[in-house]
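User: Is it possible to get a 3D structure for a protein together with its bound compound? The compound here is iron/sulfur cluster. I've pasted both below.
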Amino acid sequence: MTAAISTKPPLTVRLCAPRGFCAGVDRAIQIVELALEKFGRPVYVRHEIVHNRYVVDGLKAKGAVFVEELSEIPADHHDRPVIFSAHGVPKSVPADAQTRQMFYLDATCPLVSKVHKEAEIHHKREREIVLIGHNGHPEVIGTMGQLPEGTVSLIETEEDARSFEPKTGRPLAFLTQTTLSVDDTAGIVAVLKERFPEIVAPHKEDICYATTNRQEAVKAVAPLVEAMIVVGAPNSSNSQRLREVAERAGCRISHLVQRASEIDWAAFEGVTSLGLSAGASAPETLVEEIIDAFSQRFEVTVETVRTADETISFNLPRELREPAPAAATPAE
Ligand code: SF4
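Assistant: Yes, that's possible. Here is the predicted structure of the complex:
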């Protein structure tokens, strides 16, 4: 008997680790799932809880209803829970929920809340605030919305940093979005510090551990492979940054895909090594789907390249840690 010889071309897949879900995304999804368990359906969610269609569709199937604004929630459903997404919300949103007498749960990532608090402290200390981030991203809207309109100036690029003119003559301070490119942000900060040596910087980086670790892993893998796939959504800031990081680190083919059905197979013809990562909002099952799809066409060997271990987890909101009213026990 002769052993079957594979006619498929060999492909080494180097899996970046860490990749995929971070503690903030994990917490946000758990909040929706536990709210459905505890309060039944429907549970309303303002904005995509995390930027991933697969996750959102899964939660919709369980009874979550996604809206962009609280005004979309019917008046006879104001007693249903409404959850704010992991990206954070402007102060006006919980205030609006209170006015409408809604019961809300805040799934804002604690690392985004930390930036909100920094903004408030700078404002209290009468500093003029610069936020480094992407215009229109929900996290940026949420952070700018912690303070009165016009208080925070947004800077997106080094050119913006060069042309920025302070408005008040007060001491300056800067903050950043949590999901930026570590390298791009360092460039922007360098320009700000050169122009304004006294500018107050965050005590500890605002770019979060998950964004930093995923970028580091992609940087380590990119020089070892001919192509990179990042699993993530086009509106996911940290996924987009991972794709860029791979490209800048020398990957001539660096694609962002949401599902295996989006793979541009012609681009990967003749490739013998592939890097694979996933943005912080992409579940591992989608990474497995990509590996399975490559296994249909290639003889795949998978190797993991780990550059950091992650052990961070965040507490759930108190309302979800307490038992449901029917099973209530005396308070501690
Ligand atoms: S990417 Fe960072 S800031 Fe965003 S949810 Fe995850 S841990 Fe929080």
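The chain has three domains: 10-21+209-306, 23-109, 111-195. The longest strand covers residues 10-17.
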